């Protein structure tokens, strides 16, 4: 089957097993049936003036009407099903791909853009379907009304075709400008959304600082104003197209009534038929012109989804990891880091780099990593946990070097609580949650009076940062992975809990056989660690054995 080269149609075709041509065919048949109604009524009206039998017209009218109604109902139903299936398939695939891309992709992509593309386009596509199917019917109605017009009067047909042709040429000339302007609107809207996220996320800061609020609002107003101006221009262009569309059709009516009969001496009853057909045509052309702005926006939304998927595909193709489930490192004894080096991609000047690292971590060790701000501790943890890939050197577990086929299995060694940790609403990835164990951990983390475990998650999430971190710790414990990695876990805890954390809890976790790697600034408690590594300018500078 041929393809309609329009992003929306490519989207539907790509995501469905069945072809959309059947739906379009039924929509077209329904449109033809609609135009037949006109012909039947016209001829029936003529038959009335001649006192002829109207039974056949009545039966034909009923048949055409049923065909029109059923076709419309069927086409709508099918189209909605196809589009929703396409959206479902795309959503499932894109969310799977988000999981496949690497951390570096998410860090560079910009969460606002990613979030808006993943969520907003679908709604727009879904909402536009009734109008789009309607447009196909209206197109069929227009074509068959035109043919009927040709049957009634060749001259009227030629004049109308010329008018519609001129309208199409005018539309094509304008549509490029509209699409370009809509692209700019999208960019302006994204910058507006980014400013809004500052407004919401930085609410506390701007609430206490009027000047900050004023400056931010100035930026928001400017981004919004820019978008408004371009949208206004687009709206004006679309209104002009809409106006021209109607102008062509409405100009035709007086031509047919006042000029044509005098020039070509058409029959009076034919003039009636021509005018009735033109009124039908007016309806279909108006509906088609009305759909243009919607189509423009939907096609842009679809192109957005395509572009996002292509970017993700490229990122996944460059990813070094393939999912291999056969390797199991859970019983490891030693993690080795050999000549490992990593640099962030440089946009301007020298980029920050870490390494080379040549270290070993033994199973069951409690290792602290210390160092000043920006010394590379978090970067090192991301490398160690397999979230970043080194440019040179690498990791091995016992004697097995970690490569593209084993990275996924390697990552399964770790539970991680980063400084910007995310507390999930449920214990995802823990198949059979042991409620007793959760309650024991709630007690150990001194959270039993604050939250409860219910329906797969914790009951209260209105907690302080320190308390939320304690829940993240419980989730990490339930994951039950051999290595626990923490980035400044105790920074948000009160002094009593901090002491309990270092002097009791870490020892307890260690006695469970877990290896603990923790970034910390709490020099009071360095003595509890087996080893302390100090980082400076991306290097592990000093190993101090404390025990
Ligand atoms: N995504 C990134 N892209 C480019 N550079 C980055 C990125 N993340 C961090 N850096 C740079 O790497 C350096 C080390 O950052 P890192 O977060 O590893 O330090 P840190 O020791 O954990 O600091 P802190 O104690 O403040 O958390 C910083 O100078 C930072 O500018």
TrEMBL record:
Per the UniProt entry, the signal peptide is none
Instruction: Give the bilayer topology.
Output: Multi-pass membrane protein
Q: Which InterPro entries match?
A: AAA+_ATPase, ABC1_TM_dom, ABC1_TM_sf, ABC_transporter-like_ATP-bd, ABC_transpr_CbiO/EcfA_su, Cyc_pep_transpt_SyrD/YojI, P-loop_NTPase, Type_1_exporter
Q: Does the entry feature the keyword Membrane, yes or no? A: yes
- Keywords for this protein: ATP-binding, Membrane, Nucleotide-binding, Transmembrane, Transmembrane helix, Transport
List all membrane-crossing ranges: 20-45, 57-76, 129-148, 154-173, 247-265, 271-292
The record's annotation in Pfam families points to: ABC_membrane, ABC_tran
Major subcellular location class: membrane
Does Repeat show up as a keyword for this record? no
What's a GO biological-process term for it? peptide transport
Q: Where in the cell is it found?
A: Cell membrane
In terms of Gene3D superfamilies, this protein maps to:
ABC transporter type 1, transmembrane domain, P-loop containing nucleotide triphosphate hydrolases
One cellular component term (GO) for this entry is: plasma membrane
Q: Name one GO molecular function term.
A: ABC-type transporter activity
Q: Any idea where the ABC transporter domain is?
A: 327-547
Q: What is the lineage of its organism?
A: Bacteria, Pseudomonadati, Pseudomonadota, Gammaproteobacteria, Thiotrichales
Provide the protein name: Putative ATP-binding cassette transporter
* Domain ABC transmembrane type-1, chain residue ranges per copy: 24-297
């Amino acid at each position: 089957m041929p393809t309609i080269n329009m992003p929306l149609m490519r989207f539907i075709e790509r995501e469905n097993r069945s072809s959309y041509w059947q739906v379009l065919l039924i929509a077209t048949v329904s449109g033809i049936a609609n135009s037949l109604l006109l012909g039947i009524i016209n001829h029936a009206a003529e038959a009335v003036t001649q006192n002829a039998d109207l039974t056949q017209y009545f039966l034909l009218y009923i048949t055409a009407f049923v065909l029109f109604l059923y076709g419309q109902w069927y086409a709508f139903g099918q189209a909605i099903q196809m589009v929703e299936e396409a959206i479902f398939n795309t959503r499932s695939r894109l969310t799977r791909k988000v999981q496949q891309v690497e951390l570096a992709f998410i860090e560079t992509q910009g969460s606002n853009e990613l979030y808006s593309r993943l969520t907003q386009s679908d709604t727009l596509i879904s909402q536009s379907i009734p109008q789009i199917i309607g447009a196909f019917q209206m197109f069929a109605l227009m074509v068959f009304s035109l043919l009927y017009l040709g049957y009634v009067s060749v001259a009227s047909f030629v004049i109308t075709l010329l008018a519609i042709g001129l309208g199409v040429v005018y539309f094509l000339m304008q549509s490029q400008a509209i699409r370009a302007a809509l692209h700019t609107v999208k960019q302006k809207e994204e910058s507006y959304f980014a400013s809004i996220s500052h407004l919401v996320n930085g609410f506390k800061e701007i609430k206490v600082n009027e000047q900050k609020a004023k400056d931010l609002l100035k930026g928001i107003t400017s981004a919004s104003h820019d978008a408004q101006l371009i949208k206004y221009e687009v709206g004006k262009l679309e209104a002009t197209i809409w106006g021209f569309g109607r102008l062509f059709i409405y100009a035709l009516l007086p031509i047919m009534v006042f000029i044509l009969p005098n020039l070509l001496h058409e029959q009076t009853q034919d003039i009636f038929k021509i005018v009735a057909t033109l009124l039908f045509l007016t309806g279909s052309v108006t509906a088609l012109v009305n759909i243009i702005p919607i189509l423009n926006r939907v096609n842009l939304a679809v192109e957005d989804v395509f572009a996002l998927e292509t970017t993700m595909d490229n990122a996944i193709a460059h990813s070094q990891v393939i999912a291999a489930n056969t390797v199991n490192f859970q019983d490891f004894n030693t993690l080795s880091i050999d000549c490992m080096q990593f640099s962030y991609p440089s946009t301007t000047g020298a980029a920050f780099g870490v390494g080379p690292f040549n270290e070993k971590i033994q199973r069951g060790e409690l290792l602290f990593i210390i160092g000043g701000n920006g010394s590379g501790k978090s970067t090192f943890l991301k490398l160690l946990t397999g979230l970043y890939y080194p440019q040179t050197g690498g990791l091995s577990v016992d004697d097995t070097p970690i490569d593209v086929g084993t990275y996924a299995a390697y990552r399964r060694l770790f539970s991680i609580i980063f400084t910007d940790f995310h507390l999930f609403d449920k214990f995802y990835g823990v198949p059979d949650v042991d409620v007793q164990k959760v309650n024991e951990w709630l007690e150990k983390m001194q959270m039993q009076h604050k939250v409860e475990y219910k329906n797969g998650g914790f009951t209260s999430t209105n907690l302080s940062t320190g308390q939320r971190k304690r829940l993240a710790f419980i989730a990490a414990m339930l994951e039950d992975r051999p290595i626990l990695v923490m980035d400044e876990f105790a920074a948000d805890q009160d002094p009593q809990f901090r002491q309990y954390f270092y002097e009791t809890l870490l020892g307890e976790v260690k006695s469970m056989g877990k290896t603990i790697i923790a970034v910390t600034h709490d020099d009071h408690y360095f003595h509890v660690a087996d080893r302390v590594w100090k980082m400076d300018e991306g290097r592990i500078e000093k190993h101090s054995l404390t025990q």
